[in-house]
Amino acid sequence: MAALSLALNPDRLFPADPATRDLARALYATVAQLPIVSPHGHTDAQWYADDAPFPDASALFITPDHYVFRMLYSQGIRLEDLGIPRRDGAKVEQDARKIWRIFAAHYHLFRGTPTRIWLDHAFATVFGCTERLTAESADRTFDCINACLAQPAFRPRALFERFNIEVIATTESPLDPLDQHRKLRASGWKGRVITAYRPDPVVDPEFEGFRDNVLQFGALAREDTATWRGYLAAHRERRAYFKTMGATSTDHGHPTARTCDLPEGECQRLLDRALAGTATADEAEQFRGQMLTEMARMSIDDGLVMQIHPGSFRSHNPRVLRDFGRDKGADIPTSTDYVRGLKPLLDRYGNEHSLTVILFTLDETSYSRELAPLAGHYPILKLGPSWWFHDSPEGMLRFREQVTETAGFYNTVGFNDDTRAFMSIPARHDVARRIDCRFLATLVLEHKIGEDEAFELAPELAYGLAKRAYKL
Ligand SMILES: [Zn+2]
Questions:
Q1: In this structure, how many other beta carbons lie within 10 angstroms of the beta carbon of residue 355?
Q2: Could you tell me which of 356, 350, 425, 354 has the C-alpha nearest to residue 391?
Q3: Cα 428 to middle of ligand 1, angstroms
Q4: Residue 2: its pLDDT value, please?
Q5: 53 CA to middle of ligand 1, Å?
Q6: What residues have a C-beta under 5 A from ligand 1, the ion?
């Protein structure tokens, strides 16, 4: 059988209509080679600090990628057979080639998904594979990738440079001493890797080990975190430390967008109950909500840009949580109320000019009803790009179609890849650039904006807006 070709079509994701496609292609040509600005994501600072080779194709593409194994799991494949570690330490598949063969035999499941686009892009452009992945080509692709990974040109720093990454942000907990970032800075390597402050483990009373986390937090910051004032002082101290490791932003992954603005006595009472483990679900929610408002206050003082990523029902599947832990593809979006949820924070700080709060959503029904009207009015608010399940060609188009008429382009912040899958970074930025050029071309062909304006906007959407919004 003749091998199936993996060649990527240069017109992929552009509209089928020839006139719009020609303009999309011309716009894309002006942004395709721009450097990647990646202001929010979850790559591991240790990769850049140690610059050790990635182990093998399965450890690179399958075991760490919840997009990949959730789809395989949904079709009856056991996570153990994909080498996902169990919490009880029971035996899981260790043979990387066997894991790869299972993946390859089921690669058709990814037809029509962004995962397929990202993987094909990485196989073709990063590793130079020429065959489409199937059960039949599985071993050749596996060997091709592994042979590359053994070469110095495929180590993290070399790939970082080849991907033309101008700056990338990782995300760390306030409990992280940031040793990897320190090591990286001391190494003399010129790649710009910065941290971001993600305080969920110490602001969410329902987070695993909350009480111990807050005690450890106090020890790190040399503050008494059993008192509300000491607890806030510890945040200010850790934020300042994160800034010395390049942080320009904070990130908040709350179940809802609820914010609160409570008197100090009530805050102390909530902290007491959270530390005692006696907070009710609503009190935990109030505590998180109060902390968003406190973080906004601190951001006005220290300049860190705030990102709010609400609306994920984490670990929806209790059996997968029990056996495999968090972040195993069982997080499911819920509807999110921004209009009422954000009001206490906006009443207090919505008109500030020195504060930026970037809102993300997993609830697309909120785009035109809530998010675009909010960001089209409040000076502090901007809209993050389509996120997670909506980080896809259709999701990006829906985002532009539903928010632009009310919020414009300049209340959005360009693209961020939000990924831990290092090899997918160029693919994801490429998809965003293509879709934005497609959207701009449509506006021009429908005479909504001039062609000159589209050529001005394209690099803004690909590069300029992200750099400015995140102060990079
Ligand atoms: Zn994220």
A1: 21
A2: 425
A3: 14
A4: 66
A5: 24
A6: 418
Comparing C-alpha atoms, which of 47, 82, 39 is closest to residue 63?
A: 82
pLDDT in tens, 129-162: 999 999 999 999 999 999 999 999 999 999 999 9
pLDDT digits (tens, 9 = 90+) for 347-398: 999 999 999 999 999 999 999 999 999 999 999 999 999 999 999 999 999 9
Give dist(CA 394, CA 114) in Å, integer.
Answer: 9
The CA 297 to ligand 1 mean position distance, Å, reads 22
Ligand 1 centre and the CA of 318: distance in Å?
22
pLDDT for residue 1 is more than 80:
no
Residue 113 C-beta-side C-alpha neighbours within 13 Å: 15
Name the β-bridge partners of 298: none
Q: What is the pLDDT of residues 202-216, one digit of tens each?
A: 999 999 999 999 999
Sign of the torsion angle spanned by Cα atoms 86, 118, 391, 113: negative
The answer for residues whose C-beta is within 8 angstroms of residue 97's C-beta and 6 or more apart is 58, 139, 142
Separation CA 147–CA 363 (nearest Å): 42
What is the mean predicted confidence (pLDDT) over 15-27?
97
- Distance (Å) from CA 41 to ligand 1 centroid: 5
Alpha helices, DSSP H only, in 52-149?
57-61, 66-74, 96-105, 114-121, 138-149
Mean pLDDT of 447-452: 98
Return d(Cα 89, Cα 181) in angstroms, integer. Answer: 30
In whole angstroms, give the CA distance from residue 227 to residue 234: 10
The per-residue pLDDT for 3 is: 79
Q: Is the pLDDT of residue 44 over 70?
A: yes
- pTM score, whole prediction: 0.97
C-alpha distances in angstroms, 150 versus 54, 143, 313, 421, 425?
Answer: 8, 11, 39, 19, 21
The DSSP 8-state label assigned to residue 357 in this structure reads E
